[in-house]
Amino acid sequence: MNHDDPPQDELDPYDTEPGPDPAQDAEPVPPLSSPTSTSPNYAAPVSPEPTSLFCIQCGYNLTGIAIGSTCPECGRAVAPSFYGQTLPTSGKSVASLVLGICSIPACVFYGVPAIICGILAIFFAKQAKAQFKAGKAGASTQPMATAGLVCGIIGLCLGLLYLLGIVAFIIFAINANP
Ligand SMILES: [Zn+2]
Fold it and tell me: Residue 38 and residue 36: Cα distance in Å, rounded?
């Protein structure tokens, strides 16, 4: 039994210590693999790498171009291309998209809600695009505002057609029944 006691004493520190500590001491592979797997994922979005920066207008490679200057390809200001990836999306582009989508099925009550939602969607889309061009809104503002603009135009046209159709029907009904 005296020969069994020393191995039990050697096993006791492994049992009393917390589980993760001997695992990290015994296997150095997980501590090495976890920083290498997590560090590029966190470093890539946070640090603005100028090597992967392209003009948001024409896609020209803006590597080494100062923020205050303009794109040599299309003449657009470089600043929105730099800040557009980190700035939040404009709330007006969200409002434009929601109003634009809502304007299409809003062809009720003689198309008036669709006309109102469509005009508001176009209005907010233009303001969101102006914010984006001024470098005050994120990169996702542009496609959202464009989608809101297109949906708003469709909803506005549908509402106007609905309203004009009803007006034409009323005029036709009046003329048909003298
Ligand atoms: Zn450009």
Answer: 6
